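Suppose you are handed only these lines of text.
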Amino acid sequence: MPVSKLPVSLSTSRGKIVHGDSQQFCTNELKEKSVNLIMTSPPFGLVRKKTYGNADSYLYLDWFRPFATAFKRVLKDNGSLVIDIGGAWISGQPTRSLYHFKLLIMLCEEFGFHLAQEFFWWNPAKLPTPAEWVTVRRIRVKDAFNCIWWLSPTPWPKADNRRVLQPYSDSMKGLLKNGYKAKLRPSGHDISTKFSINNGASIPPNLIAVANTESNGYYLRYCKENNIKPHDARYPSAVPEYFIRMLTDPGDLVVDPFAGSCVTGEVAERLKRKWVCVELEQNFIKGARGRFVNPKTEKVAQSPLFEVEKKDGDYYKVPRPGLLWNGYHGEPLSEDGGKKRKISKKKADASAKATANL
Ligand SMILES: C[S@@+](CC[C@H](N)C(=O)[O-])C[C@H]1O[C@@H](n2cnc3c(N)ncnc32)[C@H](O)[C@@H]1O
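From them, the structure of the protein bound to S-adenosylmethionine can be written out as follows.
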């Protein structure tokens, strides 16, 4: 029986938004070894709705397995699978689920993917949640980064870090200006004089610092004008932009199988890559149109597709740990880990409400 094609909700000269299940799409509608990059952020709500203990991690893995099979089939040998995934707290106790680490291990050990590199996306604007553990009992710190697993079917995915260079730090500029004495570092690394060659920019670490506060001008305006609720789990365009530029060339094919508001598609369009975004929920697709159509004419907008703002958030400074410490140890730590710490009813209610909304 021929497989029915999934409906295309929007198309541009380079890409399209497909409405439906991406597992079905990747299995039936994409050719084997045809995709250069799968750039995506799968739903992590799946575990949140449950209790995110060990059993739920396994449910997540079971849910993901058919997608993993489909992704492995369609990726080129030198292609990449990049997964942005947030962590989760185990309900009712101050400990973390292992589900996203188990996903990584499953993809490598069961499906034969290689971990090219793990990245951490730090969102400096993240609120201090869950309130119960962070602001009420004060026994945990803010959970402010997502893991980004960069995987590949072979150990040699196409990649070039010169696409994602960053400005030199002030201290590096100082070294370049005043010269650097070649010497053995305490770590045992022998830093040669080559270190002081000015290459114009530095190689970034595997930490991506970007606040999730992007204005998304076109998108949000379109949602507002059309009375559509914006997607509430969007990633900032800087995340897919980084990987699309580092791992693909113009004309290559980028697929986002959990497209949400289609940030990936918008970035791929701007970077002149071919792209497909697949999304299950019609309502999210309705909003995603706002990234591609001119709200006045409803015609596909060519450029500019989004506004790049230069502002304070272009640079972040992270204080050295212990900067505020004055040598005083404070009250003795509670031997029960804060379990029985008394909190006022008002605070308890507020924190229960805050954690319930996570
Ligand atoms: C975390 S969101 C992605 C958000 C997106 N990165 C953005 O910035 O807008 C995950 C999305 O995957 C969609 N989804 C879940 N299962 C799917 C499936 N089987 N096929 C296609 N989309 C799916 C959900 O509806 C949700 O919008």
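What can we learn from it? The mean pLDDT is 86. The radius of gyration is 23 Å.
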